[in-house]
Amino acid sequence: MKSRLPIYISAVLLVSLVLCGCAHYRPYPLPTAPDLAKTPQLTVPVRQFWLPGLAPHPVPANGLDETTVVMLAVFNNPDLKAARLRAGVAGAQVFAAGLLPDPQFAAGAYMAAVNYGGDLGLSEEIRSWITRGAARAAAAAAQKQVNLDILWQEEQVAAQAQQLFVQIRAGSRLRAVYAATDRLLAAQYRRDHTAMERGDATSTAVSSELVALSDAETALRQLESQADLARRQLNALLGLDADVQLHLIGPAAIAPLTPTAFHAAIASLPRRRADLLALQAGYQSQEENVRLAVLRQFPALSLGAGFDRELEVEPINGFGPAATLSLPIFNRNRGQIAVQRATRAVLRQTYQARLDAAVSQAGEVWGAARIEAAQLRDLNARLPLLRQTAAAAERSLERSHLNATAYVSLESGYLAKEAQAIQLEAALESEQSALRLLLGLPFAAH
Predict the structure, then answer these.
(1) Which residue, 365, 376, 388, is CA-closest to 422?
(2) Strand, coil or helix: 248
(3) For labelling alongside 111, which of 16, 269, 420, 422 has CA 20 to 30 A away?
């Protein structure tokens, strides 16, 4: 019996050695409270990120300009923080794909009458050595897809932050115009209401002015509600508490594309837009999965060696090679090959559909932007004359050469056109931002 102890001791030592290198479990509990900041700050080092067109930018001391808002959104957005962790998962998958299977160790003992002994065996599965290259290539392409998907999310967040900045800044300008209109109509109503009490104005005219004043006040309240909603959306995008008041400064000016630049961007779209590049990487990963499935149709082979010691009157030792081979008769991995080829066909059509949609969407936004740009040019050409007319009407009113009703009509008409110009300008800038995203062009700010 004592002669079997070395076999057991060897097995125990080998198992102990293997277990020493194993990972250990540690709990990682979920958070129990929101993680929203009270002040905007960069919580992630800038060097860890790359967003096309987002160059190093000094943060203004007196507020947040357009580029700073975009930087804060890209760096601090809660959804992007979670998405970036996917890069670690993909990296771990590449690491796992490069690992070879552990050798298999076997030990046994037997006893029959006066005959007893033991055996040891060590074997390694060989097919994984053959498929390792394809598995690593598939995982590397999948990791590239994850990184490009994250970049696409970053670009979407950047564009959304830019458009919210445009909306909030335009809302500030619109509020001044709406408030001026409200003051103008309120003064007219008070004046004519007093005149009606004296019998110098009709109730019909005063009622009409009250309706106009009510409409102006409603428009002002709606604008304030929209501005508050946009501010809260921007705070959420920046990972800030909803009640934080941001002080936005500077213009929001996005240079429009020329027709030549637009058509050149459309032609090179598959080589530049991040989501299309991600789908290309995913398709390449699937190509490797198809190759991997084909390689796995070949028989599974394990090679090893065995040692046997038999104890009777005289000890007998035996040592020799061992092999295990699967017979490719029924399966031959045909099911997985069919699945992987069908998946590849789906991914190919998915990419084609995304490319078609990208070109169509860019064309729609381009067309709308050109129409709005023409409308804004025409309106800006008329605004100086309308401004001069309103100023002349005010001077005529002061000299009693023009009645108050005519002056209010001219002034409110000018203010309405000024508000329309601000809205058109904001819509055009938002569409230019969306167009650059759809075309995969680098981020551009004033």
Answers:
(1) 376
(2) strand
(3) 16
C-alpha to C-alpha distance for 19 and 2, rounded to whole angstroms:
27
Task: Give residues with Cβ within 8 angstroms of 326, minimum separation 6.
Answer: 299, 300, 301
Given a cut of 80, whether residue 327 has pLDDT beyond it is: no
Q: Which residue has the tokens 């070949």?
A: 298
d(CA 295, CA 99): 17
**pLDDT in the model for residue 2:** 44
Q: What pLDDT score does 162 carry?
A: 92
Given a cut of 80, is residue 51 above it in pLDDT?
no
Task: Say if residues 148 and 271 touch (Cβ distance below 8 Å).
Answer: no
- Sequence-ordered alpha helix ranges (H) in 105-202: 127-198
Which residues neighbour 102 within 8 Å (Cβ) at sequence distance 6 or greater?
none
pTM here is: 0.79
Question: Rounded CA gap, 195 and 266, in Å?
Answer: 64
Residue 303: name the closest of 127, 131, 119 by CA.
Answer: 127
Mean of all residue pLDDT scores within the chain = 82
Q: Candidates 1.10.10.60, 1.20.1600.10, 3.40.50.150, 1.10.1240.10; correct CATH number of 2-22+65-313+341-438?
A: 1.20.1600.10
CA angle (303, 304, 310) in 5-degree steps = 145
Residue 66 and residue 53 in contact, taking contact as beta carbons nearer than 8 Å: no
Alpha helix ranges (H) inside 27-126: 66-76, 78-97
When comparing pLDDT for 323 and 178, which is higher?
A: 178
Residue 255 carries which DSSP code? P
